[in-house]
């Protein structure tokens, strides 16, 4: 009887776990380049790396050093948002006194043509509570995106704050959903 009971108990205990695994499929990881200020030494890079690895689904932090000025980070945006990644960089213990700031760079090649600038700026305005977008070169459509402090929604599961996918969709999806403009997010991979 004990020989039959133990296997039955093990099967009963693993069934709910398997059902839970199937109910919440893992998202597809992305690899994104975050440009990071104030990284002056290997201790700075270590502090940021340690902070980022506390986030669930962050599996890689590559190329972060005082000489690169960026980190190539792999994570699941269905679990952790770009905003949360940037917040983890900011939350890292600053070695030299100044907080680390993570930004994204992107280009919208058609930004300066016709009334595109006004339309794109209207999309930026919708995101102003989460991000600041600074125009670096109007003719080339080059931008720098900085993150506002993250406000976490109590009780909300999943990613918090701003995520790149919504932003990119609003710009590159064809009308009427988006503007139908190409957008290129800078990458150092």
Radius of gyration: 21 Å
| Class by SSE composition | alpha+beta
Average per-residue pLDDT, rounded, comes to 88
| DSSP helical segment count | 5
Anisotropy-based shape: globular
- CATH class, please? Alpha Beta
Number of domains: 1
* Main sheet summary: 7 strands, antiparallel
Distance between the termini: 58 Å
Indicate the multimeric state: single chain
Portion of residues within helices: 25-40%
In a few lines, what is going on in this structure?
By secondary structure, the chain is α+β, with helices and mostly antiparallel strands. The chain has helices at residues 2-23, 42-52, 82-91, 116-126, 164-172; strands at 30-36, 60-62, 70-75, 102-107, 131-137, 142-147, 184-185.
Architecture blueprint of SSEs:
Blueprint: H1 2-23, E1 30-36, H2 42-52, E2 60-62, E3 70-75, H3 82-91, E4 102-107, H4 116-126, E5 131-137, E6 142-147, H5 164-172, E7 184-185
Antiparallel strand pairs: 1-3, 1-4, 2-3, 4-6, 4-7, 5-6
How would you characterize the overall build of this protein?
The protein is α+β, with helices and mostly antiparallel strands. It has a single domain, classed as Alpha-Beta Plaits, CATH 3.30.70.100. It has 5 helices and 7 strands, in the order αβαββαβαββαβ. Strands 1, 2, 3, 4, 5, 6 and 7 form a 7-stranded antiparallel sheet that branches. Helix 2 crosses helix 3. The longest helix has 22 residues. It is globular, with a radius of gyration of 21 Å. The termini are far apart. The N terminus is likely disordered.
């Amino acid at each position: 009887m004990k020989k039959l009971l133990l296997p039955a108990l093990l099967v009963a205990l693993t069934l709910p776990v398997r059902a839970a695994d199937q109910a919440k499929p893992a998202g597809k990881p992305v690899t994104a380049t975050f440009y990071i200020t104030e990284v002056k030494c290997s201790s700075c890079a270590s502090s940021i790396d340690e902070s980022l690895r506390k986030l669930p689904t962050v599996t890689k932090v590559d190329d972060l050093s005082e000489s690169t000025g960026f980190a190539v980070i792999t994570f699941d945006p269905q679990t952790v948002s770009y905003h949360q990644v940037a917040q983890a960089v900011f939350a890292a213990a600053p070695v030299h006194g100044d907080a680390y700031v993570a930004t994204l760079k992107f280009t919208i090649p058609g930004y300066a043509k016709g009334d595109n600038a006004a339309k794109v700026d209207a999309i930026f305005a919708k995101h102003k509570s989460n991000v600041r977008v600074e125009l670096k070169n109007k003719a080339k459509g080059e931008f720098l995106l900085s993150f506002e402090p993250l406000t976490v929604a109590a009780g909300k599961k999943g990613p918090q704050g701003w995520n790149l996918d919504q932003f990119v969709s609003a710009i590159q999806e064809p009308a009427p959903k988006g503007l139908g403009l190409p957008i290129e997010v800078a990458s150092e991979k």
